[in-house]
From TrEMBL:
Domain AB hydrolase-1: residue ranges: 21-244
Organism of provenance: Alishewanella longhuensis
Coiled coil: none
Alphabetic keyword roster: Hydrolase
Lineage: Bacteria, Pseudomonadati, Pseudomonadota, Gammaproteobacteria, Alteromonadales
Record-given protein name: 3-oxoadipate enol-lactonase
Family annotation (InterPro entries): AB_hydrolase_1, AB_hydrolase_fold, AB_hydrolase_sf
Domain of life: Bacteria
Gene3D superfamilies: alpha/beta hydrolase (3.40.50.1820)
Length: 280
């Protein structure tokens, strides 16, 4: 079990394959192990690293609040520890937010981004955000983390054949430290790098599930602000695309990575990424 000691805490990560480095960043309440289908597909051609954020998976819990920038700094410290000077970064949901921060923090290291069902700011704001945060905190306080995992999991995986995925997610949530989850929610609520999108001079692929929490149009709006970006829509997928549509996602990842690992290539100036319903 690879562990990296950093700032008096342990960060757990998985590492598989050889070649160009690809860093996988998971979503809220998830963990590195939930990337197993992507690691299997990518590790034949790439060195794949999947890391657990603070308080997630097998990384140490966090008693103190933290920011999205600090989560990104954790990931940069891990890359430095592994002597990885350049990498491609794939971020899902919370991981997409950290990926944006990491690209701004270390542009010399991050060569490209894949953002899955995420964005440079939280799509919901105002009273809707307060209501959602309040609901989750109330469930945790009254019923515990596993119940919250079941409630969220039922939205992520509503179909009968997806029950094993629902249980997998609920089990992971049940094992998560409550304080760390609250701190992560707070970091998400205060996250925005929208004003800095023009600084991201690197290829970006944004992948949107057709049934994600936020509409495709929301992703298209910020994609139009990025200097070098494309949008792909994956059909018949909800928020947890890495788990509910792994084959379709893996195809898009492999196609994109085959282009950007060659220095100087652009997402928009070369052949479009194939296999999606929409391009921007």
């Amino acid at each position: 079990m690879p562990l990296f000691q950093y700032q008096n805490r342990c960060l757990h990560y998985l590492q598989q394959g050889e070649g160009e480095a690809v860093l996988l960043l998971h979503g809220l309440g998830s963990c590195a192990e939930h990337w197993w289908l992507q690691m299997q597909a990518l590790s034949a051609d790439y060195q794949v690293i999947a890391a657990d954020f603070r308080g997630h998976g097998q990384s140490s819990p966090s008693a103190q609040p933290f920011t999205m920038q600090q989560l990104a700094a954790d990931m940069l410290a891990l890359l430095t520890h592994l002597e990885i000077k350049r990498c491609q970064v794939v971020g899902f949901s919370l991981g997409g937010m950290v990926a944006f921060e990491l690209a701004l923090l270390a542009p010399q290291c991050v060569q490209s981004l894949v953002i899955i069902n995420s964005g440079p700011y939280l799509a919901i704001q105002g009273w809707r955000l307060k209501l959602q945060l309040g609901f989750r905190l109330a469930v945790i306080r009254l019923l515990g983390m596993r119940k919250l995992g079941q409630i969220i999991g039922a939205k992520l995986f509503p179909d009968e054949e997806q029950k094993p995925l629902l249980e997998l997610f609920a089990q992971q949530m049940a094992s998560m430290d409550q304080a760390s989850y609250r701190h992560t929610l707070n970091a998400i609520a205060h996250f925005s790098v929208q004003s800095q999108l023009s600084h991201l001079q690197l290829p970006v692929l944004v992948i949107a599930a057709d049934q994600d929490y936020s509409p495709v149009a929301t992703k298209a709006a910020y994609v139009s602000l990025l200097p070098d970006a494309a949008l792909i829509v994956i059909p018949n997928s909800r928020h947890a695309t890495p788990l509910d549509q792994p084959e379709a996602l893996n195809q898009q990842l492999l196609t994109f990575l085959a282009k950007v690992v060659k220095p100087g290539l652009s997402v928009t100036d070369n052949t479009q990424v194939s296999g999606g319903d929409q391009h921007v």
